Q: What sequence folds into this?
């Protein structure tokens, strides 16, 4: 009796490289952000790092769910952390467009690594924009040298409505006592610095009580309660934290007591385009894998890409991806030009980029047929990684509400 041997699997396409032909449309889009020569060079180095080191390790980190320390160290070795820190505090002070382009490249290679790096920016941007000179001199050089940061807003009873948070800040002499807890905090267990939002004791109004301070790792009473076992982004840690009467110097308070809500909203406006860039990295990877695969895979005597129904699908995905990437650079330009009010544009970008990442990743799995459902092919991971982008930084329902609401009363 002859032994049954499964037929060879279709080859796993190597990720598209800059040398691959046929990506002209996207190459032109990549040239769109107005980056300085030095920023283009940095972006080239990030692309090389992402392609040669981070992408090859992504599958291992997804399977093992280990924190990708060697990726973090490689990013630091490249000198990437200082890029969003102003020069006066040991950084390079590069443009927001350059920062977004780097987030996208890292996330295209490994979404977990991309979000770990981006979270440093999300947590530290409020300090850069609203901190005192003394606070910036104390904390920012550490970030430029590679310290990890976390942003702690969400609580078990306060998700989409952050104003329901119950973490308390109680003044006590030169210190503030922090009590309460946070949930789902990216890098919460490994961060050196945590930007914590809570309510100032004694202010009754929910919105006017919100305040923000920097809590350092090692503060007595700071506890990691658990790490989540997640569908995707398995190498990025997501922690529940408890603050058991953590005593923090009052000098770590950002702004005045109760100044936290405007600060939080301003911070989210800068972090939402960043999570959109991250989602677009996942979308681009899924799109490229799908195109490469259907150019090779044959059924009924033809390559899959030769079926007209598939071409129609591809046309829709490519068009939406191109338009969304163009919007990313539009928002980047708004921020770099110092525009004050771009909250609606940022919401549109976050919502559309993340919905698109999920749609393209799902279609990429579909276009791989049964193989797409198996872990040997990267699209399986991309689909799991894409899902959270629709949930974090404001769920897409909340963004639809924010965008729609902005038109109330227009005449
Ligand atoms: C992997 C991961 C990483 C995260 N990282 C961080 C982090 O670093 N820092 C941080 O602070 N948080 C973080 N979060 C938390 C994340 O931002 C929240 O999960 C998110 O804001 C949604 O809150 P929730 O989970 O409590 O959902 P809920 O607010 O309970 O929402 C449940 C559902 O109801 C819908 N809903 C809620 N309100 C409305 C409404 N008004 N209208 C219509 N629909 C509504 C939501 O859209 C959602 O579909 C992370 C979460 C995850 C899973």
A:
């Amino acid at each position: 009796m002859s032994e049954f041997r499964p037929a060879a699997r279709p080859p796993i396409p190597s990720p598209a490289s800059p040398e691959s032909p046929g990506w002209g449309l996207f190459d032109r889009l990549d040239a769109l952000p107005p980056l300085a020569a030095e920023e283009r060079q940095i972006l080239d180095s990030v692309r090389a790092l992402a392609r040669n080191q981070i992408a090859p390790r992504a599958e291992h980190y997804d399977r093992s769910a280990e924190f990708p320390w060697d990726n973090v160290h490689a990013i630091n070795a490249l000198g990437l952390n200082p890029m969003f820190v102003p020069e006066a505090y040991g950084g390079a002070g590069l443009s927001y467009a350059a920062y977004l382009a780097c987030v996208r490249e890292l996330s295209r290679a490994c979404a977990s690594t991309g979000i770990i790096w981006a979270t440093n920016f999300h947590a530290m941007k409020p300090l850069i924009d609203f901190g005192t000179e003394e606070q910036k001199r104390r904390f920012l050089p550490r970030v430029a040298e590679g310290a990890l940061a976390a942003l702690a807003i969400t609580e078990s009873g306060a998700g989409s409505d952050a104003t329901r948070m119950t973490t308390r800040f109680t003044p006590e002499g030169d210190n503030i006592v922090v009590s309460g807890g946070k949930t789902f905090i990216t890098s919460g267990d490994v961060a050196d610095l945590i930007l914590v939002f809570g309510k100032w004791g004694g202010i009754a109004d929910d919105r006017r009580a919100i305040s923000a301070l920097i809590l350092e790792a090692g503060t007595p009473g700071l506890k990691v309660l658990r790490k989540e076992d997640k569908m995707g982004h398995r190498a990025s840690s997501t922690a529940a934290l408890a603050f058991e009467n953590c005593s923090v110097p009052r000098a770590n308070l950002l702004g005045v007591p109760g100044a936290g809500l405007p600060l939080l909203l301003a911070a989210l406006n800068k972090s939402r385009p960043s999570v959109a860039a991250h989602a677009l990295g996942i979308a681009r990877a899924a799109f490229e894998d799908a195109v490469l695969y259907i150019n090779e895979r044959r059924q009924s005597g033809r390559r899959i890409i030769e079926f007209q129904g598939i071409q129609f699908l591809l046309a829709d995905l490519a068009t939406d991806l191109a338009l969304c990437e163009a919007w990313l650079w539009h928002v980047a330009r708004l921020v770099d030009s110092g525009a004050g009010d771009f909250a609606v544009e940022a919401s549109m970008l976050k919502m559309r980029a993340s919905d698109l990442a999920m749609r393209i990743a799902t279609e990429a799995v579909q276009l791989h047929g049964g193989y797409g459902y198996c872990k040997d092919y990267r699209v399986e991971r991309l689909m799991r990684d894409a899902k959270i982008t629709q949930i974090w930084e404001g769920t897409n329902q909340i963004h639809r509400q924010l965008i729609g609401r902005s038109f109330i009363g227009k005449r």
Remarks:
- The beta strands are 149-152, 168-172, 175-186, 193-200, 210-216, 222-227, 238-249, 253-254, 298-299, 302-303.
